[in-house]
Amino acid sequence: MKNRSRRRKGLIIFAPLLLIIVSLFGLTYGSVSVPFTEIWRVLTGNEPSIYQTILVDLRLPRILIGLLVGACLAVAGCILQGVMRNPLADPGIIGVTAGGGLMASMTMLVFPHLSYMLPISAFLGAFVTAMIIYFLAWDKGASPLKIILAGVAINALVGAVQNGLMVIFSDRIQSVIPWLAGGLNGRSWYHLEFMAPYAIVGLLLSLLAIKPANLLLLGDDSAKLLGQKVELQRFLLITLAAFLAGAAVSVAGLIGFVGLVVPHAIRLLIGEDYRYLLPLSAVYGAILVVLADTIARSWFDPIELPVGVLLAALGAPFFLYLLKKRGLM
């Protein structure tokens, strides 16, 4: 317990420091490196700088979007893992993100004039997918194997429909392909204004999920004895996780494994208490996405690698490790 408390304090202390360091790293590095003195000059607004456009119009909104996307995906994964009592649950792995992506793709391809509805359509797709997987996997408990199998089936079905849409609307797919890879390339203040209200509302509502998530960890019977409406709470928590995943998908596309890696790693360090697990997952999820995005766009110059590709390359081995550790392989 003392070691866990010490690790918890360490994560809390380092969180704001790492957030600042990673954000400055994102502002500094890219196809054009910007000296720190120029960053300070632009942010304080004291003197004009030749890097004004690069920092203010390109990198700053991209970093802010990355922070929100990472926080939303990590919190969504954290909530789903608690609701399903399964550390392998993640919006991407179990198909929730794919469901949101399908609806968002449908909006962009079939109804491009309704682009302002992207967050809502992504949420509806993510929510319907989450509910289907939940009911398929639930049998006096959410079996890890059943969740994985249901997620594979749903992902295959969604992928088939997605491919069909791309064939039918082949003249419009160029705008969708980069989005399907998952990335923040070209994201601007417009995109931030587009998704920020949804993301901020979802993250604030997630604070209300801390108490019911902790009670659900005790098991359904114990939670009912404490006067909790278990099924209603589970439904609301899944809805919230789908809303967060939909908000992230609507702007960043199909970025996976953030909701798996971050909450699971923090849980190993500090335990299951959602009073600390959920907010720390949000912060470190934001840090991971911004760090990965900066690496993806600066280390592979002149190519800008989509951050979704890099995170998948890092997250897939971690997922295989978890499967092996739990005896599912």
Automatic annotation (TrEMBL):
Give the membrane topology, semicolon-separated if more than one.
Answer: Multi-pass membrane protein
Q: Which CDD domains match?
A: TM_ABC_iron-siderophores_like
Indicate where this protein is primarily found: membrane
List the record's Gene Ontology CC terms alphabetically: plasma membrane
Keywords annotated in UniProt: Cell membrane, Membrane, Transmembrane, Transmembrane helix, Transport
Compartments it resides in: Cell membrane
Q: Any stretches that span the bilayer, and where are they?
A: 63-80, 92-111, 117-136, 148-169, 189-210, 235-262, 274-291, 303-323
GO terms, molecular function: transmembrane transporter activity
Family membership:
Belongs to the binding-protein-dependent transport system permease family. FecCD subfamily.
Name-wise, this protein is: Cobalamin/Fe3+-siderophores transporter
